């Protein structure tokens, strides 16, 4: 006869912190193994940085082209990971019932989203490290307040994550795939990443400046190229998008 309480290992859920770390590590490995995600997060930003920095295609104004392009490409990297990649991956996880099954596990749903956010942040660190090294090789000479850069990147990540999760949690997976890629292309062209906003008509500039990608790219450019102080206006735009996106995602996200 077996005494009560002698089972080994002891049944029950793992500590919450360990579950989040394990899920975050799994999410990161899955993202880095996905060829389409790598194309969005690494290959496209790298090619754009190399091409437009070495070939005179777009007039980026005075100074070296890489000084204008590097901050914009860093913003594009955040967009590709936090918005496009996360929206597509989460949308198909929802369609195939992965989120429903994970939601029934001991891992709380908020902890699952935390793990996804950690995965996005890890991927962004790898992206930014690679793109920064390439930009330095091309002659980039950044300067400015590192705290301002960090705040811009964090708020940009929050804004794009909220919008990506909102799209993934409300649209069908196929619609999310099409819409996320379309938005990526539109923001690449009209968000001040490669083409300066000054090249657009005055009426369009005032609207485009309110987009999160424009706020992020212009804010990074002001700090890293021009040595400006804290870009409060751009931070305010990103904070507003983060509150709206995350709030709407929390309200309307459907797990099934």
Salient structural properties:
10 helices; globular; about 260 residues
Q: Would you give an account of this structure?
A:
With 256 residues, the protein is mainly α. It has one domain (16-52, 63-251). The protein is 73% helix and 0% strand. The protein has ten helices and no strands. α6 (146-170) runs antiparallel to α9 (212-224). The longest helix is centred in the first third of the chain and has 31 residues, at 65-95. It is globular, with a radius of gyration of 20 Å.
Q: Could you give the topology of this structure?
A:
Blueprint: H1 16-33, H2 35-54, H3 65-95, H4 98-103, H5 109-137, H6 146-170, H7 173-190, H8 202-208, H9 212-224, H10 232-252
Helix pairs in contact: 1-5, 2-3, 2-5, 3-5, 3-6, 3-7, 3-9, 6-9, 6-10, 9-10
Provide a compact summary of the structure.
With 256 residues, the chain is an all-alpha fold. 73% of the residues lie in helices and 0% in strands.
In DSSP terms (H or I, runs of 4 or more residues), the helix count works out at 10
Report the major sheet.
Answer: none
Shape: globular
Q: Compute the average pLDDT.
A: 86
Amino- and carboxy-terminal Cα gap? 45 Å
The assigned structural class equals mainly alpha
Number of strands: 0
What oligomeric state do these chains adopt? single chain
- Radius of gyration (Å): 20 Å
List low-pLDDT spans: none
Relative helix content:
over 70%
Strand content: under 5%
Q: What is the ordering of alpha helices and beta strands?
A: HHHHHHHHHH
When the domains are counted, the total is: 1
